[in-house]
Every structure is written in C-alpha cells, then in structure tokens.
Amino acid sequence: MPDKSFLFKRPPLWSDHETAAQRRLPAELQSWLNETGSLTKRLRGIYGNRFGVELLFHRWKPAFNDECRLLKLPPARYQLIREVVLHAGGRPLVLARTVLPDPTIKIAHRNLSHLGTRPLGEVIFAYPDLQRRHRQFSRAEPAQWATAVQARMPMEPSVWGRRTEYAIHGHSLLVAEFFLPALFERL
Fold first, then answer.
1. What is its EC number (predicted)?
2. Which of 30, 43, 60, 147 is the most buried (most CB within 10 A)?
3. Cis link prior to 157 (omega < 30° from 0)?
C-alpha cells in the first residue's frame, strides 16, 4: 500500500449512513464530521496564523478501489493523490487524503495540482459552482494506519473521519478528513 498512500496500510471502510456509534459521539466531534463549510476557514478561525499544512504524499497513483467506484473511474488509471496533515503550530489536528482525477484538475485550470502547503479548502471553496455530492463516514482503527503515521501521532483507540465527493464545473474530486484527538483538546 505505500505506493498508494502514506497514511494507510489498508483503506478505511466507509458508511453512507450515520451509525449508532456515531450518534453517541461527543457533540464537538459530530460538529466537525457534519461541517458543511470549509474546514480550512474553521481551523483558521480557531488557530489563526498557527494553522498550517504539511504535505505527506503527492503522487500520481491509482486510487483505492472504493474511491474509483465512487468517482466512476477505471481502477488502474492514475489520479493525483494528495495526503496532508493540518496542524496548529506543528500539533496534528486533521489527516486528509484527496483524490484528484485529471479531468477535474484540467477544468480547475491546474490550480489543484500545485497546491504545495496551501490548503485545498482555500481553492475549492473559491469556486462559485462547487457542489457537495456525497458524504460518507468512517472510524479508522489503529491497525489501518501506516507505521509512519502511528509513530508521529496518537491513533488510539480509533479516529473518526468523513469523505466528501465534491464537483467543480461538474467534475468530481474526493476529500477524506480524519479528526485527531488534539483537535478537541483546545475546544
């Protein structure tokens, strides 16, 4: 899997529907899972200039099979995979994985392929016709995370996340975000 992801040993399992376990989550976590606006904007509002992005993985690779199914892409075709950690002063808050198909990058005038440490949310939420098409939820267990990730940050006992399919000018991209314990320590 290291050729497809820095974050995961194996892909998370996603659910289209809220589970009983999810309904019992703390209100703070539920508010992040159900956020409809830009996470970047919300995090900047809390952490100001301490908010930043660290690029972990940025490669043209085949996406996970379930990502290809959701985006209606051939499984062997290369997509731009971007994985980052959103942090406040170096303290990890959110792990994110984005799948950017080539047609979406082209329609977005390549703004999406050269982000570097610029937050994705700053770019996609600037498009006036951005659509949110589909949202799913997952609880990633410690065994799913890559060894390099587990060595850098606490992944116990499990980490909740969401995956959203967005469309820009009718072309899809997929964004998965996992909310780390440090995010809730300040709140």
1. 4.1.3.40
2. 43
3. yes
**DSSP bridge pairs for 79:** 61
- What number of H helices and E strands is found in the chain? 8, 6
Domain boundaries, the chain: 20-185
CB-CB contact of 86 with 39 (8 Å): yes
Binding residue per annotation — 82?
A: yes
Q: Is the dihedral of CA 10, 41, 119, 103 positive or negative?
A: positive
Nearest residue to 147 via CA among 53, 6, 4: 6
Q: How far is CA 175 from the centre of its chain?
A: 4
Phi, psi of 148 (to 5 degrees): -60, -35
Q: How confident is the model at residue 53, as a pLDDT?
A: 97
Give the Cα separation of 166 and 174 in Å (integer): 6
CATH class entry, domain 20-185 = alpha beta
The predicted-structure confidence for 83-119, as pLDDT tens digits, reads as follows: 999 999 999 999 999 999 999 999 887 788 899 999 9
Amino acid, res. 112: L
